[in-house]
Amino acid sequence: MRPTRPGRTTEGPLPPTQPLRTVDLAYRRATCGRPLPLPFVFAYDGPAPALDSVRARVAERAPHIPVLTYRPAPDGRVFRRTGALVVERHVRELRLPEDTDGTATGRLLLSRPMATGDGPLWEVWLVHAADGRHFLCYRTDHTVQDGMGAAYAARALLDDRTDAHPAAPPAARPTPRGLAGVLRDVVAGFGPGTPKPGFDGPVDGRTGVCHATVPLDRLRALGRAHGATVNDVYLGALAYAVRTWHLKETGTVHPPLPVAVPMSVRAPGEEFAPGNRMVTARVVLPCGEPTPGQAVRVVAARTRRLKESRRRDSFRALLAVTPRQLGARIGVRLVNGAVVSGPASGVGFGAPLLHRGAASRWAAVYSGMTSGIRCLVTLTSQHDTACLTVVHDENLPTADELPDLWLAALLELERT
């Protein structure tokens, strides 16, 4: 399923059905079979392309991208190939002249039902925004694709270049320490709920979206200064932002905050395969640390242990020998509002999305929420820009302060 030439990603006939994998079944269980939207949004300056030109590109390429030709069967056991593509159902246009930063676009993409009929569960939206800007958006169902899968599909479907894909992570052998760590996460998932006072409570169901962008080189420089990676800086600054936010709201320091960190296990050759290829690790954010520098160093030590123990590969190995329905039940417990505040993911897209000669300024991938989760956070990097996105339930009305507090934590990091 690797690209064989520009615009084509198939080699020979595709099977009529493919089984849902463990993580796919977990999402289906968590959502009771309803689609969980996963948009990948690309922001552009300047005039938008014509809708007909976007439809023409999609009509030419989509039939050759395997994941875009399947949808879950009604019984929820397999992905089934669909019929001919009706491009007008899958590529739509919208005008949101009040949207200056992608928030209105995000709310729409997370709330509007998919209207693809009996076709595959994905769409492309061309959104005309404020000040002559526009967004080009790829939206799929999280049962069908994870964030990295969506990155591959969006690139193959929309980019002028079809070979500018991010590299798949190399596989390694599991370790006893890694296997033990996975089992500890499973035990925590089935244990008593973890107090998360800033994030516990009823779910409203209405969703807010907010963003903050920052030069990627700035995060890299902060990582070098503190012996950390970009991901460590992202999570450490997030921990300090939660501390500041909760202190402002309640006058108390937030206790350590468990989050679910997704890790891709999508192997070379699986770039365009249907289904989720990812696992998660439970990481506890040190919201009690008095400075963002200390928070980053604590996070760096914890993620270093994950890497040294090969947690990603160990979880992949355990999934391979676990019955799918049992694994799905475990997966729902690992990413559940009772035991984690929500996912905190990072996706690297690589080069900007080049569409009809225009390069995206920034990109953001995120998803809807389920299983009692009231907030999720993503960091999406492309070329020289990283975008922090916070998706939150409207019962957390001040959670839209978190991106600015995250930027403030970065500024404090630079001063220390």
CATH superfamily of the largest domain: Nonribosomal peptide synthetase, condensation domain
Major sheet details: 5 strands, mixed
| Strand line-up in the sheet with most strands | 5-6-7-2-14
How many distinct folded domains? 2
H/E series: EHEHEEHEHEEHHEHHEEHHHEEEEEEH
Structural class call reads: alpha+beta
How far is the first residue's CA from the last residue's CA?
48 Å
Radius of gyration: 20 Å
* Highest-level CATH class of the largest domain: Alpha Beta
Number of helices: 12
Q: What's the total number of strands? A: 16
Which parts are unreliable, with pLDDT below 50 for 5 consecutive residues or more?
A: 1-10
What is the name of the CATH topology of the largest domain? Chloramphenicol Acetyltransferase
Shape: globular
**What fraction of residues sit in β-strands?**
15-25%
Summed over residues and divided by their number, the pLDDT gives a mean of 94
CATH architecture term of the largest domain: 2-Layer Sandwich
Assembly category: single chain
Protein name: O-acyltransferase WSD1-like N-terminal domain-containing protein
Pfam families: WS_DGAT_cat
Organism: Streptomyces griseoviridis
Looking at this protein, list some descriptive labels.
O-acyltransferase WSD1-like N-terminal domain-containing protein, 5-stranded mixed β-sheet, disordered N terminus, 416 residues, CAT-like_dom_sf, 23% strand, Chloramphenicol Acetyltransferase, 2 domains, single chain, alpha+beta, 4-stranded mixed β-sheet, O-acyltransferase_WSD1_N, 16 strands
